[in-house]
Structure formats: structure tokens, C-alpha cells
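Deliverable D2.4 — example input (C-alpha cells):
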């Protein structure tokens, strides 16, 4: 049996705001948006190239609302890989993605940190070729 990480929960303040940001600004695909009742929804988005999806879960209480945008304690918590860093970086910038630094080259690849609309930090990375 082969196990794989399929979905990670991302706590958000509003379903529609989160969908708009992840789909329109970051270029993700909307995989599912199912109403569950009591104003709850099952909303999954994922990078257009596939991989692990985010379950966009609306905060239910003050503790969860306090975690919105700080789910990894201010560290980069999510890594989006690309085969064409320059093209994807330019496309994301043109859609208003909040890059927190200029692209840089590290031993592991070309990378730049960006934030989602909540402040969660991501790396856009083109892994170094061995």
C-alpha cells in the first residue's frame, strides 16, 4: 500500500474570499465546493499542476479565527513547485500575488517567498536539477 498526503486544512475567514484568492490570484483549481448545511461547505482547491489540495475550512470560533494567517507560526509552511520559475513568478506577480522578496538561487533551487491574502507564507520554488 502506498500512502500519500492528499489534503491539508487551511483555516480561512470566509469561503468565497478564500476561493477567489486561491483561484483567481494564485491560479489554483477549484476541485470541490459542496454545501454541507449550517453554512458549512467542503471546499477544496489545488495548484493547477496537481498535488496536495487545501481544504478551505471557515473558522468556527475565536481560537480558529486567531489562527487564520498564522497556521505555521510565521514560517513558510507551504511549498509550490514549478518547472518554469520565471514564467510562473511573472504570471503570479501580474495577478497581484504578494511576493515578500526578490527571487534568489539557493543550493536546493530558485525560490521566492509569497503570502496568501491571509499572510500565510509560501515558497514558489523550482528545484535544482541534480
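Example output (designed residues):
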Amino acid at each position: 500500500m502506498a500512502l500519500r498526503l492528499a489534503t491539508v486544512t487551511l483555516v480561512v475567514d470566509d469561503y468565497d474570499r478564500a476561493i477567489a484568492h486561491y483561484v483567481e490570484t494564485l491560479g489554483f483549481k477549484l476541485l470541490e465546493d459542496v454545501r454541507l448545511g449550517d453554512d458549512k461547505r467542503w471546499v477544496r482547491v489545488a495548484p493547477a499542476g496537481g498535488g496536495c489540495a487545501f481544504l478551505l475550512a471557515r473558522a468556527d470560533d475565536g481560537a480558529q479565527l486567531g489562527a487564520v494567517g498564522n497556521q505555521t507560526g510565521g514560517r513558510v509552511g507551504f511549498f509550490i513547485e514549478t518547472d518554469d520559475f520565471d514564467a510562473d513568478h511573472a504570471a503570479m506577480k501580474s495577478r497581484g500575488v504578494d511576493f515578500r522578496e526578490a527571487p534568489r538561487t539557493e543550493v536546493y533551487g530558485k525560490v521566492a517567498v509569497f503570502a496568501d491574502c491571509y499572510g500565510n507564507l509560501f515558497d514558489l520554488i523550482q528545484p535544482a536539477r541534480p
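The beta strands are 7-12, 29-37, 40-46, 53-58, 76-81, 98-99, 104-106, 109-115, 121-127.
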